[in-house]
Write a structure and sequence with these properties.
It is built from 4 helices and no strands. By secondary structure, it is mainly alpha-helical. The longest helix has 16 residues. The radius of gyration is 21 Å and the shape is flat.
Length: 91
């Protein structure tokens, strides 16, 4: 028998609790491992860990015409794609 519509998924809840407990018990190890990663891998790891625990945000639908009706357009000009104009952040 399927669960009633709108009721929480018991398995998903249990998995999230398990992952939260595992991460909580190994925070020191995780800190050391993540600190040893290169910057781009560090960000990737943190985002993947956050996705397992945090709820996903829901986007609110706003009618486009009503929102930007009185605004000036944004113009983006790309001059040279070969020469970097900034340096990547160092973590």
């Amino acid at each position: 028998m399927p669960r009633p519509k709108g009721s929480p998924n018991k398995t998903t809840k249990e998995v999230k609790e398990l992952l939260t407990n595992i991460l909580s018990n190994h925070m020191d190890d995780l800190d050391e491992c993540i600190a040893a990663l290169p910057a781009h891998r560090k960000v990737d790891a943190l985002l993947k860990l956050a996705a397992m625990i945090l709820p996903r945000p829901h986007m609110e639908q706003i009618p486009f015409a009503e929102t930007w009706e009185d605004e000036e357009p944004i113009i983006i000009q790309i001059n040279d794609l070969q020469t970097p104009t900034h340096h990547p952040a160092q973590c």
